Amino acid sequence: MRTELVLIAAMAVAVCGCKRETRTFRESPPASMASDVAVSDLHPGGGNPPARSISPYEQNAWALNEGKRLFSAYNCSGCHANGGGGMGPALIDDEWSYGHEADQIYRTILEGRPNGMPAWRGKIPDAQIWQLAAYIRSMSGLAPKDAAPSRSDHMNGPPPENAAPRMIPKNAGTPPAAER
Amino acid sequence: MSLLDQEPADSGDEKVVPPLDPARTLPASLDVSAEKLEAVWAEKPGLFGWLSVVNHRDIGRRYIVTAFVFFFMAGLLALVMRIQLARPDNHFLGPDAYNQIFTMHGTVMMFLFAVPVMEAFGVYVVPLMVGARNIAFPRLNAFSYWMFLFGGIFVFVMFALNSGPDVGWFAYPPLSGPAYTPGKRADVWAQLITFTELAGLAVSVEIIVTVFKLRAPGMSLNRIPLFVWAQTITAFMVLLAMPAVMLASTALILDRLVGTHFFNPAEGGDPLLWQHLFWFFGHPEVYIIFIPATGIVSTIVSTFSRRPAFGYLALVLALVSTAFIGFGLWVHHMFATGLPQMGESFFTAASIMIAIPSGLQFFCWIATMWGGRVVLKLPMLWVLGFFIVFLVGGLTGVMLAAVPLDLQVHDTFFVVAHFHYVLIGGALFPLFGAVYYWFPKITGRMLGERLGQWNFWLFTLGFNLTFFPMHILGLEGMPRRVYTYQAETGWGDLNYLSTIGAGVLGVSVLVFLVNVIVSLRAGVLAGDNPWGAGTLEWATTSPPPNCNFVYPPTVAGVNPLWENPPDQPVVVGLRDDVRDVLVTYVLDAEPDHRTEFPEPTIWPFCTALATSALFIGSIFTPWAVVIGAVPLFVGLTGWFWPKEAGETGTQAWPIQHRTLPKPGEAPAGGPV
Amino acid sequence: MHAASVLQSVLAPAGPQAAHIARLWWLMFWVATAVFVIVSAFVVGAIVWKRTEPRRDDVLRVAVTLGVAATVVTLFVLLVASVWTGRAVASLGASSTVTIELTGHQWWWEAVYDDGTPSQRFRTANELHIPVGRPVVLKVTSHDVIHSFWVPNLHGKRDLIPGYTTAIWLQADTPGIYRGQCAEFCGLQHARMALYVTAESNDAFERWRMNQRREAVQPTTDNARLGRDVFLRSTCTQCHTIRGTIAGGAMGPDLTHLATRGTIAAGTLPNTRGHLAGWILDSQSAKPGNQMPPNSLPAGDLQLLLTYLETLK
Amino acid sequence: MRTWTTIAVLAAALASGCHRNPPQGEQPAHGAAPAPPASSVTGQPDDGQWLMASKDYANTRYSGLGEITTSNVKDLKLAWSFSTGVLRGQEAAPLVVNGTMYIVTPYPNILYALDLTKPGAPLKWSFKPKPSAAAQGVACCDVVNRGAAYADGKVVFNTLDNHTVAVDATTGEQVWNATLGDINRGETLTMAPLIVKDKVLVGNSGGEMGIRGWVTALNLKDGSQVWRAYHTGPDKDVLIGPQFKPFYASDRGTDLGVSSWPPDQWKIGGAGMWGWISYDPELDLIFYGTANPGPWNPELRPGDNKWACTVFARRPDTGEAVWAYQYNPHDLFDHDSINEHLVLDLQINGQMRKVLVHPERNGHMYVFDRQSGEVLSAKPFAFTNTATGVDLKTGRLQYVEEKKPSTGKVVRYICPAEPGAKDWQPSAYSPRTGLLYFGHQNICEDMEGLEVSYIEGTPYVGANVKMYAGPGGHRGEFKAWDPVNGTIAWSIKEQFPVWSGTVVTAGDVAFYGTMDGWFKAVHARTGDVLWQFKVGSGIIGQPITYKGPDGKQYVAVLSGVGGWPGAIVSGNLDPKDPTAALGFVNAMSDLPAYTTKGGTLYVFSL
C-alpha cells in the first residue's frame, strides 16, 4: 500500500515535470476552448458562468516563454510596456477589462476590443495566441511559478513572471472559491 | 640536474625513527588485541548501520562503484548520440532530446564520473598508502558521498522527467540564462554543480588533512608516494578552482530564479564573466582529472618496472608546476571571443608551456621503464595505452594552444577528438589500470586476465575508431554539439565509422562489467601483495581489516615494502578500546599526538538529505533556502553534538615505535 | 546551390588568412607526427627491448634532460610560429574595404552591408557576397545568445556575443561559394545555422550590391500581385520585411531579394518552390524549434504567394 | 513698423526696469510680438478674447489685460466651473470669442460652447464628433487634444481619429469635416490647428507608431486640402523647391529626406507635427518644428534622419520651405522639436534682430535669425549631460558619445530624458518684462535600445526607458528666462513636472498649474507665488485669461491630469512596471497618491 502511494506520488511528480518541460514545436491549438467565451460577470436567467478549462500552455515553461518572446516580437509591449501599460492597459494588475481567463484573453487578442486593442485575427497563428494568453496570465502571477518565465535579458522591469505577485482578478467572472 | 636525482640512498637511516621520550613511562604491555580493534573499528549492522558508515574503505568503494554506474549511464547516452549522428539528417533523435543527451553526457562524465572517481580512489587508497586507520574527518567523508549520490540521482531523475539540462556542460549564458532556457533544465544543471562541488570540496579537505597529519611516522615529505602527492595537489586545485564555478552557478541560479543580472549585458552584466569564471574552474578541472591519473601511472609504472619511479622530485615538481600553470591558461577556451592580441599571446605561451612539465613526466616514466624490467601485466597494459593515446591528445593540445589554429578548430569535432584523447587517454586508461591494479586490494580477488585483455584491446580499438576520425571531421568543418548535419557536407562516412567505433567501445565496457562481476565471485584469490608493489596499502591484508593496520607502520622510504629494513618498527601505544589514531607533524611526520576518531553515525546521511532537499527546493522557490535551513540545522546539530565526557578515554598511552615480535606481520622490506 | 560547389574545410584555404593558418597546421602536424613517432618508439622500446642489466640512473638522467631540452626548443619554435601567424591573420589593410554588420539570431544570420550614405545600406540574410581580392571587415554581434561565425575556407571563427561588437577581417582570393556554420552551441537549431559566402569578381559583386540596394520589384503579373496581397494580409508581415511594401518585421530574415538566395532557413533547404512551400506550411518538420510558426494557407493562396516570392529577385 | 516696435520694446524694458510694481490698470505696452495677431482673422485687435490656443501668431500667450495685478491677485476667487465629463488628460486651451467660451475635450473630442453672458456660463450647445474608439489604441501618450482655433465664424479642431472639423461658432452645426489620416497607419491628431489667412494648418501625431509626418493646409472655407508638406522623403514631398535656402551646409542637398535614412525607412520614420506653429505676417512665414524620428532606438536608423527634429520656415500659401534647421540630427532621445517658436524682435548684441526663440527638448534655448535660419545662440536652460552644446559654425548639436543609446544595453543617467527638458507645454513671453515663462521638467532616464518590427498600426518604439528625477530631486520647474542674455531670471522648483502651459498678463502675473492640482499665480518679475488654488485634479492644460462680457478679467484653466506623465493616473497604469508609459511611470509612481482623474474647467476672477 505504501509503495503504491509512493509510486503514485512519483508518477504525479513525473507528470508535472513532463508537462512543465515538454517542448512541442508544432502546436495544435486548443480550439475547443474558444467556443464558449463570456466577458461579462452577469449571467441572467440564473445561468451559471461557463465552465473553464485550464490552458495546457499555462503549465508549460516552453510555451510560456514563447508567449513572452512573442509579446515583444508582436509589439504587444509597445502598448502594454512590460506589463505596466501605456497606450494599452496594465496587464500585471488585478483589473481585467475583458476577462482574465485564457479563452477570454485569446478572444481579446483574436478579435480586438473596441477601445484600441487591435484585432490580430489572421496575423498571429492560433497556437501563438494561446501561448500569448497563457503568458499574459503569468504576468500577473496566475500561472504556476515553476513554469512561469524569469527575467528577460533586457532592462530590469517589473518583477519577473516567476516572482510576480499573484494578483487575484478583481472583476473575475468566477467566484473566488473556484479560483485556481 | 638535481631535480632528477634519486631518493637519498640512506633510506634505512636510523634517524627516521623518532627517538623515544624518556620522560614517558611505559605501561606493562603494548600489545593490542586484533579482535578488540576489529570490534572497535567495526560499522553498525543492518540498514541503519549501512547508512551510518564512516570508514574510508566502504565509502571509497561506494564512491567508486557509484561513479562507475554514472560512467556506464553517460556512456549509454554517448552511444545514443553516436546512433543519431551515424547518418546525415537522421531522425533518431530530435534536437530537444539530443541537446539534453549531450549535455547530460558531458556533465555526468565530468562532474559525476571523472572527478569523483579520482577522488574515490583517493578516499580508498590514500589512507592506506600513508598508513592511516581512516581518512581525516570520516563523517564529512560520509556526507560527501551522500551529497554526490543524491546529486547524481537528482540529475538522472530530472533527466527522466524531461528536465535534463540541455545547455551544454559549460552552460554559457545567455543561452543558459532565464530568457533562452525556460523551465528548470538549466537550474538542474547549476544545482548539480553545487552538489558535486560540495562533495568534491569535502573530499579535498579530507585528503589534504589525511596526507598532512595522518602519515605514518617516517613518511617525511620526500617519502610520500607519488599517487598521494598527486591526490594532494589535486585536492589543493579543487579547493582553489571549484569555488569559482560554484560562484558562477549560484549567480546563474540567481539570474534565473530571482532575476539578478550577473550575465545580462543589457543591465551591466556580462556573458563573458561566466566564461572567465567557468574556465577558471574548467581548465584546472582537466588537471584535477589528469593529475591523479599521473599518480596512478607513476605507481603502476614503478610497480611493473620493478624499481622506484625515476626522478621522484622532478615528478612531484612537475605536478606542482602543472597545477600552477593550469590556473593560468583558462583563456585559451575563449580565443574566439576576440581578445586583445597581447592577451592571446600570453595565454598561448602559458598553454604551450604546460606541455613542458607533462613532457618531463613522460620522460621520467619512460626512463623508469628503461631503468627497470617491465612486467606487462594488465594494469601496465592500460598504462601503455595511456602513453600512446594521451600523447596524441597532448600533441593536439599544443595545436589548440596556438591561437590561429584554435580559431579554426575550436568548437569543432577536432576539439571533441582532442579532449577525448586527453581525458580518456589521460584519465580513463590509467583509471582502468587502477581498477585492475587495486581491485585485488579492495576485493581480495584478481580481475580475470583473459577478459581483461579483451577489454583492453577492444577498448583501444574502439576508442581510436570512434575518436580519430573526429579530428578529420573537425578540419572539414563539422562543429560540435550539432544534432545532425546535412548530406552535402560529406561528413557522413567518417561519422558512420565513428559510430561503429562507439559500438566497439560499448562492447569493451560490457566485457569489463562482466569481468568485474565474474571476478568478484570467482576471481583468483589475491593475497596481500599480488603485484609485489612497494607502497603501504600492500602491507595489510586484502581486503584490509576494519582498522587498516593492527599496528600502524612506520616507513623508511618512498616504497617502504621495498626499502624498509626487516626490523622496521611499528607504532604502538594506541588504544584498542576506542578509535585511536596517531597524528603526526606535517613536514617530517613525527608523532604529534593521538586523537580519537568518530563513531559511525546516521547524521551525515540525514544532513545530506536535508542539504539535498534545500538545494533541490531552491530550484523551485528561493524560500527553500530559508525553510530548508531548519532541517539542515537539525542535522548539523545532531552531527556536532558533543560527546558525553565519560566516553572519552582519560587513560593515554605514550606513543612509541617498536619492532613487532613476529616479523611476518610487519611490513617487510626490499623489492620483491 | 549544389553540394559539389560547396566547400567547408580548414585545409582548402581560399584566402590569405586561412592559408596562413593552414600552413601553421601543416607545420604543427608534421612536428606532432615526428614527436609521436619518436616518443612511441621509446615507449615500445622500453618494453620490447629486454635487457639483462637495468640502465644506470646517470644515463637516464642525461636522456631525460635531453628530452626535456628538445621539448622546450620544439615548443618555442611552435610558439613563435603561432604568434607570427596570429599577427598575420589579425587584420588586413584598410583600403577599399567592404563593411558588413553581421548579427546572429536563433537560428539565422542577419547581414547589413554598410555604406556612408544611410540609404545605400541594405539588409540580407544567411548569404554573404564578397568581392575577390578585397578585404572585408565584419562587425559581429548577437541579437540573443552567443553564436560563432565560421567560414573555415576563409578564416577562423569569431564569437558573436550579445553586448559586444567585434571586428573580424576576411578576404577571399579564389572565387567560389564557401559554407560556414555557427560554431558556438546556440540552442535547438545550432545544427541548422549555416551561412554561405559567395566570393565573386568585383564587377559581379557590385552588380549584386546594386540590385540588393533596390527595393523589392513590384509584381507585374496578376498572380504575383495577388500573391503579394496574400503576403501582406497573412502573418508573414509580422516578422519579415519586404522593402517597398508595408511589411517591416524584424524578427525574421529580410525577404526583399529572397529569390536571389540559394537556400532558405539558414542553409537548411535549397530555395526552390517546393521547399519554400513546405517551409511556409510546416517549417517545424525541417527545423524543429525554429521561430517560424506553421502557417495554414489555402492551397490557392499558397501558390499565389510562392509565385510572388519567386519574383523577389 | 519695425522702428515703432523697437521703440515699444525699449519703452517696455525701461518701464519694467523703473517700476517694479506697475500701477493697476496700466494699458498693455505693445510688446515685441509683431502685429497683434487677431487682426488678420477678425480684423480687430482684441486682447479680451482668446482666439487660438497660443493667443497670438507669435505664440507669446501674453494678455494685455491688467485688471489682475501682483497686488490684488491674492483675492482671486473661483467664479464658476464646468465639468467636461471626460476623465482623460485635459491639455486644451479654452477659446473665448464674442462672449462664448469653447472647450474641446480629450477623446471623444466633444466641443462645448459656454455662454459667458449668463451667470454661471451655461452650456449653449455641444458638438460630438464621435471619433472611432479604436483611435485610442494608437495615441501614444494619452488621448489628449490641445485645443481649437477660431476664425471666420468657425471653430476648427481636430479629432483623435484624424478628422479636422469646422463647426459654426454660433449654431454648433458642422460646417465641414476633413479626413486627414488613417489610424490604421498609427496616425492621430492631437494638436490645436492654427488658422493663417484662409488656411487651417494641421499636423499629425504618431512618431511612436511609424507614421510619416506631415503638415497639411486646409481651406478654411470648405476643408479641402491646399497643400501637404511631408517631413521625410524626397524633396517634392517635403515641398523643398528653389526657394529653399537653409543656413547650414548640412541641411543642404537633394532628397536628404531619403538619403539620410536607411532604405525605405523614411516611409515610416515618424517626424510628425503635433505642437505649435507660429506665423510672422511681415515675412509671411510660418515656423514649426517636426517631431522625433522613429523608432526611438537610434541604431535602427543610421543617418541624420531628415527632416525629423527640424524647424521649417514655410510659405503659408504654398507650403514651400524657405529654410530649415535640424535641431537633433540623428535624434537619440525622442527629442521632438514641436515646441513653440516665439516670433520676437529682440536686441541681440546691441542690434535689433527678428528672431525666433525656441526652448528645445534637448535643453537648449535656441535663438534664430528668423529670416535666414542662423542660430544666434543656443544656451542650456536645464541640466543636460547628453550634449555639450551647439557648434554655431556648423549648427550641429554636439552629442556626448557615451550617452548614445545602444541596442541591448542600458545607458544610464541620460539627462534630459525622452520628454526632454521641456515638452509641448507652451511658454509665455511678456514684452513688459522681456522674460520667457515656462514650466518644464527635470527628468533623467536609463534607456535601452531594442530590436523592433514595424507592424502597421502598432507602436514602433524599440526602447525600454526608465525615468526618474534629475539632479536636485525635484521633477519640475517653473522658470523665467531672459532670452537676450541667455540667463535664468528666476525659477520655482516643483515636485512634479510642470506640464501645464503658461499665460502672462499685463498685470505682471504669470499663471501655471501643477500636476498635483495647484493653480498658481506668480509675480512675473520676482517669481514669488502670490496666490494658489487647489483644483480637483492635476493640471496639464493651458491657462488663458479673457475679459468677460461684464468687463471683468477672468482666468480659466482645465484641470484633469493625464498626458504622458499623468498616464499613470488617467490610464490606471501599474507602477510595478517602471517601463510603463514609455518609462514615465517610474518617475511618477507617487502621482496617484496626489491626484485622481478629472475633467473640469475652473474660471477665476477677482
What does this structure look like?
The complex is a heterotetramer of chains A (180), B (672), C (313) and D (606). Chain A has five helices and no strands. With 180 residues, chain A is an all-alpha fold. In chain A, helix 2 packs across helix 5 (126-139) and helix 4 (102-111) packs across helix 5 (126-139). In chain B, the strands form two sheets. Chain B has a two-stranded antiparallel sheet with strand order 1-4. In chain B, helix 3 packs antiparallel against helix 16 (492-522), helix 8 (271-305) runs parallel beside helix 11 (355-371) and helix 15 (449-475) runs antiparallel to helix 16 (492-522). Chain C is of the alpha/beta class. Chain C is 37% helix and 19% strand. In chain C, the strands form four sheets. Chain C has a five-stranded mixed beta sheet with strand order 4-3-2-6-9, with no helix packed on it. In chain C, strands 1-10-11-5 form a four-stranded mixed beta sheet, with helices on one face. The two termini of chain C are 16 Å apart. Mean pLDDT of chain C is 91; it is low at 1-5. Chains B and D meet through loops of B and loops of D.
Which key features would you list for this structure?
heterotetramer, A: 180 residues, mainly alpha, Cytochrome Bc1 Complex, Chain D, domain 2, 34% helix, globular, disordered C terminus, C: 313 residues, alpha/beta, Immunoglobulin-like, four-stranded mixed sheet, 37% helix
Computed Rg of chain C: 26 Å
Broad CATH class of the largest domain in chain C: Mainly Beta
Outline the low-pLDDT stretches of chain A: 173-180
Mean pLDDT of chain C: 91
Largest interface: B-C, 87 and 86 residues
β-strand percent of chain C reads 15-25%
The gross shape of chain C turns out to be elongated
Tally of DSSP β-strands of chain A: 0
CATH superfamily of the domain at 53-145 in chain A: Cytochrome c-like domain
Task: Give, in spatial order, the strands making up the sheet with the most strands of chain C.
Answer: 4-3-2-6-9
- Look at the helices and sheets of chain C and give the structural class: alpha/beta
Q: What radius of gyration of chain A results from the CA coordinates?
A: 17 Å
Short description:
Chain A has 5 helices and no strands.
Q: Helices and strands in order, then pairings?
A:
The complex is a heterotetramer of chains A (180), B (672), C (313) and D (606).
Chain A: H1 2-21, H2 61-73, H3 76-80, H4 102-111, H5 126-139
Helix pairs in contact in A: 2-5, 4-5
Chain C: E1 6-7, H1 16-48, H2 57-90, E2 98-105, E3 108-113, E4 122-125, E5 127-131, E6 136-142, E7 147-149, E8 158-160, E9 166-170, E10 176-181, E11 194-200, H3 202-213, H4 222-233, E12 263-264, E13 269-270, H5 273-281, H6 283-286, H7 299-311
Parallel strand pairs in C: 1-10, 2-6, 5-11
Antiparallel strand pairs in C: 2-3, 3-4, 6-9, 7-8, 10-11, 12-13
Helix pairs in contact in C: 1-2, 4-7, 5-7
Chain D: H1 2-18, H2 38-42, E1 62-63, E2 77-83, E3 95-97, E4 100-104, E5 111-115, E6 123-127, E7 149-151, E8 154-158, E9 163-168, E10 174-179, E11 194-196, E12 199-203, E13 214-219, E14 225-230, H3 235-238, H4 256-259, E15 277-280, E16 285-289, E17 310-314, E18 321-326, E19 342-348, E20 351-359, E21 364-369, E22 374-380, E23 387-390, E24 397-399, E25 410-414, E26 428-430, E27 435-441, E28 443-449, E29 463-469, E30 476-482, E31 487-494, E32 503-505, E33 509-513, E34 518-523, E35 529-534, E36 544-547, E37 553-559, H5 563-570, H6 584-587, E38 600-605
Parallel strand pairs in D: 1-32
Antiparallel strand pairs in D: 2-38, 3-4, 4-5, 5-6, 7-8, 8-9, 9-10, 11-12, 12-13, 13-14, 15-16, 16-17, 17-18, 19-20, 20-21, 21-22, 23-24, 25-28, 26-27, 27-30, 28-29, 30-31, 32-33, 33-34, 34-35, 36-37, 37-38
